[in-house]
């Protein structure tokens, strides 16, 4: 049992778990932002009624949901920016650098 507790202390498993949980929460917030605010605004700007994610291209009987794909890309980019600026704000990019 002591070996397991030492492992948790040394490897920062608790911090990793907290980061994982917070990452999931940030992902939900960003997804809601993209779905509820950004997509409708882009839909209006592109002349679509409703959300961007509903935009599609019909070729015969095939329906290509390009709007949904763009929504997922926007979602990813916003999450990537939040992680990047959070990383910079916490100065984690300066750790372990030897001058």
Q: Can you tag this structure with a few keywords?
A:
99 residues, mainly alpha, two-stranded antiparallel sheet, 6% strand
Structure description:
It contains 3 helices and 2 strands, in the order ααββα. It has one domain (19-92). The model has no long low-confidence stretch (mean pLDDT 78). It has helices at 2-11, 13-45, 66-89, and strands at residues 57-59, 62-64. The chain is mainly alpha-helical and 99 residues long. 8% of the residues are buried. β1 (57-59) and β2 form a beta hairpin. α2 (13-45) packs across α3. The protein has a two-stranded antiparallel sheet.
List unreliable stretches of 5+ residues.
Answer: none
Largest sheet: 2 strands, antiparallel
Count of strand segments: 2
What's the helical proportion of residues? 55-70%
In terms of topology, how is this protein built?
Elements: H1 2-11, H2 13-45, E1 57-59, E2 62-64, H3 66-89
Antiparallel strand pairs: 1-2
Helix pairs in contact: 2-3
What is the structure about, briefly put?
The chain is mainly alpha-helical. 68% of the residues lie in helices and 6% in strands.
